[in-house]
Write a structure and sequence with these properties.
Blueprint lengths: L1 H25 L9 E7 L2 E5 L16 E4 L2 E8 L6 E3 L6 E4 L4 E4 L5 E4 L5 E2 L5 E2 L5 E3 L9 E5 L4 E5 L5 E6 L2 E3 L7 E4 L2 E3 L8 E3 L8 E4 L1 E3 L5 H33 L3
């Protein structure tokens, strides 16, 4: 009975849906995290009577036909790139992006990764790095005797030197993409560009619809507990309904096999 297989695909789809929801909930406090959403598609159809086929020599046609579907599949996990709430930390190296854009991070192999997580540190040489020690690009080196570090909304990094003069250390840029949902997640709050995302467009914060920077803030996750709970309940009910179909199909098969 095909209903067994069809319902099984539904149960598998909702099992994956719950896994995605659980990952969202697990990252509710992850800085810069963007929630995922499961997108589903129906599977191939069996045409038992093809729509539009002729039913007589006079040219009459079948108006609707008979099609029986074969279930559901997971088509995509769309990343929802909406703005998260900005949380004040008062830490001078913490940065939040308000609007469009990603920080550029150089990985150990030289690849450029992208992140919304602006919880930065400085290493033993004074370089601005992520919590994993990956260098922020463009490179910013903060001198040991520098005080009163300030990062403006347009990414200009300045400190006060030993003489009391204000010195500009460099300029932070942001990158954005035509299709930011096409970025590949690699963990550690990092993304890589793909053919789907397009090439990075780099500019100064605040220019040409790029977001600006907020020093002393970080961007929180955009996961909303109420949304995830309601999605979880809907997934659970869908799973239960598919299991009921399997139970009903099993009872029908049992009745057929017990016919005398």
């Amino acid at each position: 009975m095909k209903a067994l297989h069809i319902a099984a695909t539904g149960m598998k789809a909702q099992e994956t849906n719950v896994e995605i929801i659980s990952n969202n909930v697990a990252n509710m406090r992850t800085t810069g995290y963007k929630r995922l959403r499961a997108d589903f598609q129906d599977l191939l159809y069996e045409n038992q009577r093809r729509v539009g086929s002729q039913t007589s020599s006079a040219g009459t046609i079948v108006p609707t036909g008979v099609q029986v579907g074969s279930g559901v599949k997971l088509a995509a996990t769309s990343r929802i790139m909406t703005q998260g709430t900005l949380e004040q930390t008062d830490k001078e190296l913490d940065l939040a992006i308000r609007g469009e854009g990603f920080f550029q991070i150089q990985l150990p192999d030289g690849t450029t990764a992208y992140t919304r997580d602006g919880s930065f540190e400085r290493d033993s040489d004074g370089n601005l790095v992520t919590v994993d020690g990956y260098a922020v690009q463009p490179a910013i080196n903060i001198p040991q005797d520098g005080t009163d570090l300030s990062i403006s909304a347009d990414g200009t990094v300045q400190v006060t030197d030993a003489t009391g003069a204000q010195v500009t250390l460099g300029q932070l840029n942001l990158a954005r993409f035509v299709n930011k949902s096409g970025l590949e997640s690699i963990g550690d709050n990092l993304y890589l560009a793909t053919d789907a995302s397009g090439d990075a467009q780099v500019d100064i914060p605040g220019n040409d619809n790029f977001g600006d920077l907020q020093q002393g803030y970080v961007e929180s996750s955009n996961v909303e507990a109420v949304t995830e709970i309601s999605d979880l309940i809907a997934a659970q009910r869908a799973y239960e309904m598919n299991s009921k179909i399997i139970q009903a199909a099993d009872e029908m098969l049992s009745t057929t096999s017990n016919l005398r």
